[in-house]
Amino acid sequence: MELRTLRYFVAVAEELHFGRAATRLHMSQPPLSRAIKQLETEIGAALLDRTPSGVRLTPVGAVLFDEARELLGRAERMRERVAAAAGAAVLTVGILGDSTDADATRLAAAYRRRHPHVEIRVRETDLTDPTCGLHAGLVDVALTRGPFDGTGLTVRELRADPVGALLRDDDPLADRETLRLPDLSGRRWFVFPAGTDPAWQSYWNGGEPREGPVVRAVQECRQAVVWNGTIGMMPLGHEAGEGLTAVPLLDMAPSPVVVAWHGGDTNPLIRSFVRIATAVYRS
């Protein structure tokens, strides 16, 4: 059995669906199905029961699933140790500037415990690049927010934060318990510069073209509201700032906190970062 084939099997066993597993593995479904069939032939037993809605593990498949995950984990740990011994123990992490996420602090501590000899280089970016330099090849992995153009990237959601309208305390809408986007129609919003990722821009503008002062950083967003009385959106878990308030928006989808990396990158330190981030943020 090859490790690659076992990774294919584990993906199918975790997703219980060939299509979703193929998407996760960045491959088409037919070669994935052939690989699993070949694995069943080598073992001499069925690993999966195919159904119209997906698949389920057979008793033999359940045993292989447990063993394969353990084996792949050991192989990953071996790669991490070899990479460290070879002097490749550097990981560059991109984050959005002015981040005060407590989960990120817990992630840093957990990763440091797991990889005490890995040097983490942090690259902060402003709000004009939600991939934090990932598309430009400036970082290995990004801890950021979606949505954005994920072409060539693997993006895993870690958490989803409700958002609210950021208003000045004396704004007529500031005393409302909740708002909806139509309540904000006709108002000026802070906007990102031309050329910013369209999906990112659209989300933070409530899905519509907006006009208002151009901002690049979180503090500029706050100051645009303070000085101009414009509005915008922010995650409700963040501090609004002095003289400002955030009112929950009922008709806005939550803001996803994500970890992203290049889909074809096999750096074991990235894989470990993703695993630890998933465990920390979902605990």
Quick structural summary:
The protein has 283 residues and is of the alpha+beta class. Helix content is 38%, strand content 21%.
Folded structure, characterized:
With 283 residues, the protein is of the alpha+beta class. Helix content is 38%, strand content 21%. The strands form three sheets. The protein has a five-stranded mixed sheet, with helices on one face. A three-stranded antiparallel sheet has the order 8-7-9. Helix 1 packs across helix 4. It starts with a helix and ends with a helix.
Derived structural class: alpha+beta
How large is the radius of gyration?
22 Å
How would the global form be characterised? elongated
Relative strand content: 15-25%
How many β-strand stretches? 10
Helix content: 25-40%
Q: Record the strand order, biggest sheet.
A: 4-3-5-10-6
Sequence of secondary-structure elements: HHHEEHEHEEEEHHEEEH
Largest sheet: 5 strands, mixed
The DSSP helix count reads 8
Oligomer: single chain
Distance between the termini: 33 Å
Given as residue ranges, the uncertain stretches (5+ residues, pLDDT < 50) are: none
Q: What would the average pLDDT be, to the nearest integer?
A: 90
Defining key terms:
283 residues, alpha+beta, 5-stranded mixed beta sheet, 3-stranded antiparallel beta sheet, 8 helices, 38% helix, elongated
